[in-house]
Amino acid sequence: MDYNATTPADKEVLALINRITTECYGNPSSSHILGRMSRACLDDARRKVAVSLECDDDEICFTTGGSESDNLAIKGVADGRSCGHIVSTCIEHSAVKRTCDYLATRNFSVTCLPVDRMGCVDPKHVEEAIRDDTFLITMMWANNETGQIQPVEDVARIAREHGITFHTDAVQAFGKIPVSVRSVPVDLLSISGHKIYGPKGVGALYIRRGVELVTQVHGGGQEQGLRSGTENVAGCAALGEACRLCTNRLDEWAQKLGGLRDELERGILERIPETTVNGDPVRRVPNTSSISFHGVDSSQLVVRLDEVGFAVSGGSACKSTTEGPSTVLTMGMGLSADEAAGTIRFSLGHGSDASHVAQMHEVLPGIVEQLRGVRSEKLT
User: Fold this and answer.
1) How far is the C-alpha of 160 from the C-alpha of 166, rounded, in Å?
2) pTM of the model
3) Which of 190, 225, 248 is the last residue of a domain?
């Protein structure tokens, strides 16, 4: 139940990786037959990603994952300027937040917008934050901790009206809900392979035609000259196949996981008092649930569930080793430090089924009751 952290590679994706690694090992920049075979595989992968996002092939740039895609988008736009203003939000993934923090040390200013109690950004706040020197808006499509879906369509419209570049981190949205750059006119969009049953170490950045980015990795000029280096052909092919599969199965997976998620929440709320589901019950991706267990230390709950065979998270996996409660829940959504410290993220995936939900309902109440008892003893 920690699929938002990462996913296992799909068996069809693994089969393709094995075949490409064996048969298409040539350098795709080489002109001989082995190079041409690898180039064909790379082109096919790019086409699959483009089809899944409803864009043109030449608008896809392969990267090493979501974090590099975010960095390439934000730095790529900013590095063409000496100064300026960026609008972001307080719930962004660290790959966006820390990149903006870095730019704030280089004569750029950053406005970090708040969210409401449901964890959603108000588009009016975005428009109010725009200044004469605003050149970039960056806002995630869906939050990695709560699953909350953000108003990207409204913000894309606002950005377009003001002539501002709009980037969205769609890593936690793509493969769970429809994500189309034809329907939502974003300028830059990040995705990651290992969140959609592809391998780790590969991702992509959609770059709308006409958007200019400054090169971030110099070298042989691969990937439109933006990030040089011999392409990971097998990884890119695997990403393309993962995109094809998740697009074709999107409705089926969403219905299944949404039903399991709802049943998980119903059972927990019925069996365990003083629990709260965080975020909007409707505007969130179907696989994710953020639940606060009052009077419980989430780090201890994660350990206890791990001991009985369940993987869950106390928040974002990228921040699991840092101290302190989630800033998304506290600074963003207004939860108290104690409420945030007792929050677990459950994120379901293709391997989840009704038996797992039933088992969670069976073991979780006793663990929570025991941890609450331990805490009460310490307080007295």
Assistant:
1) 8
2) 0.94
3) 248
